[in-house]
Every structure is written in C-alpha cells, then in structure tokens.
C-alpha cells in the first residue's frame, strides 16, 4: 500500500491518529475541569504505567482538553538531578499568558512572583548575570515565593496563581511528565502545595505522569498523598480498543484488516499502544493491498521487531554497563522460570534475591547495579525486595538478543 498515506505514528509522545481506549479518562477529566472551575473540591491527578502505554500522549490530550475550556496550562518534563524551580517557572509563565490579561496589575504581580520563585534558584546573593531569566518582563516581587524553602515558596506561588485564575473565572493546569524523576524535596513541596490548594478550593490542579512506582514515591514524601491525588493506572489496550486503533486510521485511507490479521496484530503487540503503531506502520508499508491479511502481518513482523530493537529496546539497553546488562538478563531469566512455574509475569516484578541467586552473588553486592538501573529508568521497584522492567516485552528482547 502507498507508504505516503501510511496513517500510523510510532513516536515518543506522538499522538496516534486514533486515541483508542482512553475515553473514560478523557470524560472523567472533563468533569474535573468543570468542578474545579466552579470552586468544587477535586483532587489532582496522577497517571502511572510502563513505557509505551501512552502516558505522555494522554497527558497531552488532557492538557488539550484544559486549553479548550479556556484554562491556562503549562507542561514540564522532570529530569533526574534537575531542580523544579526553572522548568516550573517556564511552565507557569506560559499558563499565566494563556489565561489572558483581563486585569493587567494582577497578572503582572503574579508574573513577578513567578520570576522571584525562579530567581531564588541561583541563591539570594547571586549576581544579576548568574540569575536565570524566565523571559518575564515585569520586576520580581520580593518577599513572595523567594524564601529559599521550596515548600514555602511553592505554596505561596500556587496560592497567588489560584487567586488570579479564580478572579478570571478559569483554572490553571500544571502537567508534569516523568514525575518520578523529581527530587525528594521537590516532591514533598509539590504535595504540600497541592494539599493547600485542596483546602483552599483554588482552581489549580496538577496532572502528573510517571512509572508504576510513582505512587510509592509520593507516599514516601507525604503520608497524605494517598488521599491527595487520584491515581489512574494506564495499561495496554483491550482487544476492541486495539482493533479500533488500527482500523479507524486505515478506514480513513479506504483500507481495512481481515479479522485474522487483527488477531495476529494483537498477539504481536500485546495491546501496547506504541507497539500497535510500530507494527501498524510496518504492515502498511509492506502489505501489497487492502484488506491486510494475517500473512501480511507475518511478513512485516520482522521489520517491526527490527525497528523496535533499535529505537525502543536497543537505545535503553545501550545505556546499561556490562554489569548492569548481566543484571537485566538475570531478571529476564527469573521471569521465564516463574512463567514455567505457571505464573503470568508479563510486566510483573521478580524478587531481587532471586536475581542475585541467578547470578550466584549476594544481593548486597548487586545493590550498585540495581540502584544505577533504577536511576536510568530501566527498572523500577514498586515494593521492597522486588524489581521489574519499565519497558514491556524487554525480557523477551533480552532473551532473543542472547
């Protein structure tokens, strides 16, 4: 079929042509937006899931819904070792600009507070040339959100933002991707600020996305975070949604799939959205005509797997040291042993002690490799003593790679 008309879009955070299987989350968020804008109590939202399930795509879709409601929005991506002040200041600058300028003085005051919050990152005595400039023209407001204590400053900043949004009859949404990579102090401050917002009823919400252990990260910071956020686990698509993700874009290009082809695609992708797009693209490019058959899927599968091996799996594998790769391979071997014992271990955790036993080493000696893999985002630990891959089908990739 014509590759120029190929509708599928495998890319990091790239919205697929058909956002299938997420209608429930989108509808629920519309209710949240309306309630918050009317001053009704509502919790901030946290999306969790493995790599490739579409968390970033859904986060962007939720932000788009907020924009359509007239909200001010800003987005940032947390990174290990990076403080929260600078990226959050940029995101909030954009959010305030999106709100509009109905009251010039109030807007300038809040932008000045954002600027003071950003400048505090360099230290109270920093020279002007050493201060990061968030692109805000108004002068910084001294004595507000600039104490140096991130928790105090963030509460003050969110309070002023919420007041501005309430006066405008709108809301502000702060969207944070890779939220598990925030530093411990920043997580604690963010939880405290959200707690203050929930008590005051100000129209500001935080929507975060991260790996499955994000709830544990938040809970370790503030015990009340379990009641502070509404958690939504984003998982692989059910069969009907996966079929729709393939069929709807094809129908727009006057193409179709045979039922056996759809079944073969689900078996190959496991319902993971990123894999659906990767296989969909490969099958479209190699299929001679419509409708797509199971034989077409079989022919295209090696092409899709090769692409995933390089761009999705391989790029992550290459970040690991030889010792860390041994640890990853041992995890895959332990998962196979569990599967042979009758357990369904796709995406499930294995015991760290079992991994150490597979390598013939003491668990303590493997702590450096394990901790490094955690920091690199290749594995996660949702509970003490257990470890799991952040990427679906990663164990299969390691075993096939040898």
TrEMBL record:
InterPro entries linked to this entry: AAA_16, Cyt_c-like_dom, P-loop_NTPase
UniProtKB keywords: Heme, Iron, Metal-binding
Domain Cytochrome c: 166-317
GO molecular function: electron transfer activity; heme binding; metal ion binding
Protein name: Cytochrome c domain-containing protein
Protein source organism: Nocardioides cavernae
Lineage, top ranks: Bacteria, Bacillati, Actinomycetota, Actinomycetes, Propionibacteriales
């Amino acid at each position: 079929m014509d590759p120029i008309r190929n509708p599928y879009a495998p890319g990091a955070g790239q919205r697929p042509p058909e956002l299938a299987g997420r209608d429930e989350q989108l509808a629920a968020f519309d209710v949240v937006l309306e309630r918050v804008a009317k001053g009704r109590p509502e919790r901030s939202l946290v999306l969790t899931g493995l790599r490739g399930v579409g968390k970033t795509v859904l986060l962007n879709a939720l932000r788009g819904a907020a924009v359509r409601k007239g909200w001010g929005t800003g987005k940032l991506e947390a990174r290990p070792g990076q403080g929260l002040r600078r990226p959050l200041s940029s995101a909030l600058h954009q959010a305030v600009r999106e709100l509009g300028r109905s009251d010039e003085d109030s807007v300038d005051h809040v932008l000045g507070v954002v600027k003071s919050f950003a400048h505090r990152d360099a230290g109270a005595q920093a020279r002007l040339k050493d201060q990061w400039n968030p692109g805000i023209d108004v002068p910084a407001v001294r004595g507000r959100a600039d104490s140096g204590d991130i928790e105090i400053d963030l509460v003050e900043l969110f309070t002023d933002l919420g007041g501005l949004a309430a006066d405008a009859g709108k809301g502000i949404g702060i969207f944070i991707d890779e939220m598990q990579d925030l530093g411990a102090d920043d997580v604690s401050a963010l939880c405290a600020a959200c707690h203050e917002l929930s008590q005051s009823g100000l129209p500001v919400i935080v929507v975060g996305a991260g790996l499955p252990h994000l709830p544990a990260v938040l809970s370790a910071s503030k015990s009340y975070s379990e009641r502070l956020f509404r958690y939504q686990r984003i998982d692989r698509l059910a069969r009907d949604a996966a079929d729709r993700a393939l069929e709807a874009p094809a129908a727009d290009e006057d193409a179709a799939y045979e039922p056996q082809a759809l079944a073969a695609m689900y078996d190959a992708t496991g319902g993971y959205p990123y894999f659906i797009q990767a296989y969909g693209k490969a099958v479209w490019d190699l299929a001679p005509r419509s409708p797509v058959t199971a034989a077409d899927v079989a022919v295209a599968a090696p092409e899709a797997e090769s692409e995933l091996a390089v761009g999705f799996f391989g790029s992550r594998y290459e970040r690991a040291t030889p010792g860390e790769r041994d640890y990853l391979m041992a995890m895959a071997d332990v998962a196979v042993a569990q599967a042979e014992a009758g357990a369904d271990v796709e995406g499930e955790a294995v015991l760290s002690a079992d991994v150490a036993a597979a390598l013939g080493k003491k668990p303590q000696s493997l702590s450096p490799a394990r901790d490094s893999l955690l920091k690199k985002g290749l594995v996660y630990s949702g509970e003490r003593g257990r470890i799991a891959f952040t990427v679906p089908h990663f164990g299969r990739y390691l075993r096939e790679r040898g």
